[in-house]
């Protein structure tokens, strides 16, 4: 059968992605990408270091970025994103800007990082006070809070798992439990950190329960990269992507929100343990981290 009249495949826009060597969620990134965009991923070289501030520094060295960006430029992407939260906040705001500059110099292609995309996304939704959830150790979580503080964003509450490996194995239920623990006081949005932590399906459920925008590392990375080339990210009922969702659950049916008490849980909310009663948490209270695990050591749900 002669198919020459079809003229070949449709042109594709390209997004280059530099990820750490242990990144395991390629498919999650693709879920935010429309059909006319291709992702081109490459990984940083393996280093025998567990997830820590040291690892974050190693995978974000400019020499490492230069090599990865040059490899990606072989397929002519329109933008390049560095998909690692800790690797892009470990050097502070100045370090994140220097990373972007180094990538642009290496490939002469517009470039961004996950942490830079986070700041852009927080400003997009008009938030200044956010809760933070991470799979990291305390020291890495502290570094994220310092980075946000430099950018003028206040962390109102936080929860973390204390993991040093196998972060991609964390189930959604543990992410939900951390979110409930972290969202205290006058919080305007929630950020779920780490590009190796699964988040795609849990975002709309948490937004419905917590009644606030929920951002994740992979979500903001794809949102910013696609926006840089004039394309909208796709995703069901996510406040960052959908102006209707940004106005809250009640906007979907045209009614005004009804005050049903703090942290009321609609029927559509993610199943799991109930939110703690009012009065049992204190603003800024940091729950103790769960112990690190190898396999099977996650906290009970």
What does this structure look like?
It is a single chain. This protein has 301 residues and is of the alpha/beta class. It has one domain: Rossmann fold (3-Layer(aba) Sandwich), CATH 3.40.50. 34% of the residues lie in helices and 14% in strands. It is built from 11 helices and 8 strands. It has helices at residues 26-30, 53-58, 62-72, 85-89, 92-107, 114-124, 138-150, 172-182, 202-210, 217-228, 243-246; strands spanning 13-19, 37-43, 79-82, 111-113, 129-134, 154-160, 189-192, 214-216. The strands form 2 sheets. A 4-stranded parallel beta sheet has the order 2-1-3-4, with helices on both faces. Strands 6-5-7-8 form a 4-stranded parallel beta sheet. Helix 1 (26-30) links the parallel strand 1 and strand 2 (37-43). Helix 3 (62-72) runs parallel beside helix 5 (92-107) and helix 6 (114-124) packs across helix 10. The longest helix has 16 residues, at 92-107. It is globular, with a radius of gyration of 19 Å. The N and C termini lie far apart (57 Å). InterPro entries: Iso_Racemase_Enz_sf (IPR053714), MaiA/AMDase (IPR026286). This is Asp/Glu/hydantoin racemase. Pfam families: Amdase (PF17645). It comes from Streptomyces auratus AGR0001. Residues 250-301 are annotated as: Disordered.
| End-to-end gap | 57 Å
- The coarse overall form would be globular
> How many runs of DSSP E, i.e. beta strands?
8
CATH class: Alpha Beta
Helix content: 25-40%
Number of helix segments? Answer: 11
Q: What structural class results from the helix and strand content? A: alpha/beta
Radius of gyration equals: 19 Å
Low-pLDDT segments, ≥5 res: 250-301
What series of H and E elements makes up the topology?
Answer: EHEHHEHHEHEHEHEHEHH
Largest sheet: 4 strands, parallel
Looking at the structure, the CATH topology is: Rossmann fold
